[in-house]
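Fig. S4 source data, part A: sequence.
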Amino acid sequence: RLEESGGGLVQPGGSLRLSCVASGFSFRRYAVRWYHQASGKDRELIASISAVDDTTGYADSVKGRFTISRDDDKNTVYLQMNHLKPEDTGVYFCYVAALWGQGTQVIVSS
C-alpha cells in the first residue's frame, strides 16, 4: 500500500514537500515515480528515481524546480516542489511496484 501526503494550497512561487510512504513491502528494490494529473487531463510522469543508484529524471515542466529523493530506511520517497506555478495544480500520485497511491491534492493559487 502507498500513501501520499503533503499537498495543500500554496501561493505561486511557494513550496511544498510531498511524501509517499509504503507499507507492506520495501521500497528498496524499486524505482519510484511521481505523476501529476491536472483536472480533465491525463496523468503525466514528472519525476523518477532509480533503485540502483538513485538516478533521477524530470519532465521539462518541472526540471530545476522539483527534486525527487528517497529514504529507503523510512520507506519513503519525497517530492520537493519549489517555485510553484498555477499550472502545477492537480493531484500528485506516486507509483511503485505497479501500485498507485490515492493521490494528494495541490492547489497553486493567489
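Fig. S4 source data, part B ends here. The two ends are 34 Å apart (CA to CA).
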